Amino acid sequence: VEEMNLRSLANLREREDPPDGCNNLPVLIDSIDLRFPDVGMCRALVMQPLGVSLQRLLVADISSDVFVRLVRDVVGAIGAAREAELCHRDISVKNIIGVGRNGLLNRLQDVDHFVLIDWGLATSIEEADVGGWIGTVPFMPRHVLERWAEMRRDLVLNDLESFSYVMIYCLFGE
After folding, report:
1. Which alpha helices (H) appear in 15-125, and where do they start and end?
2. Contact 31, 3 (CB under 8 A)
């Protein structure tokens, strides 16, 4: 994702009246240029360390209070991204991190809040390519899979639909 897009997420926190969900977005610390042998120069975004992926935490059943917290936090992050006119485009159990109280996190019950991470495929809603969608296949919106190249879409609804599949996965597994 362009650094400018992530900076627009960071700017939401600095508003006098930040929108709900800002605490469920990653904190951008810095950006650096790295040289990779096969690719050349790439820009890397340095984010604040967080916690454990939802995928790793789902070794036991999810309680109703943790599930409600998950829904509240991720929908809040999607809403805050919408406020910054961004669409995540890769919502999955690997891209949701549980953050524990005082840095301690061994199980779902220890999660204080969830953060939506990996904004590498995010795009500006205004500049989005209407002919395609990127993401993790098990969590892609159904209509995207059915009509990949010819669909008309509402980007925010697609992020929410992807998250609904994450919720189903949390409740029922694969």
Report:
1. 54-57, 64-83
2. yes
Q: What is the DSSP letter of 95?
A: G
The beta strand positions in 28-133, using DSSP E, are 28-36, 40-47, 52-53, 86-87, 96-100, 111-116, 123-124
DSSP structure class, residue 7: H
Looking at mean pLDDT, say which of 7-16, 30-39, 71-80, 117-126 comes out highest: 71-80
Among residues 173, 171, 54, the alpha carbon closest in space to that of 105 is found at 54
Per-residue pLDDT tens over the stretch 90-125: 899 989 988 887 766 777 888 888 989 888 778 777
Among the residue ranges 17-31, 61-75, 138-152, the one predicted with the least confidence is: 138-152
Work out the pLDDT band at 54, boundaries 50, 70, 90. Answer: confident
- 18-22: list long-range contacts, CB under 8 Å, 24+ apart: 18/80, 19/79, 19/80, 19/83, 20/76, 20/79, 20/80, 21/73, 21/75, 21/76, 21/77, 21/78, 21/79, 21/80, 21/81, 22/80
In this structure, what are the phi and psi dihedrals at residue 133, rounded to the nearest 5 degrees? -145, 145
Stated pTM of the model: 0.71
Q: Report the C-alpha gap between 69 and 73 in whole angstroms.
A: 6
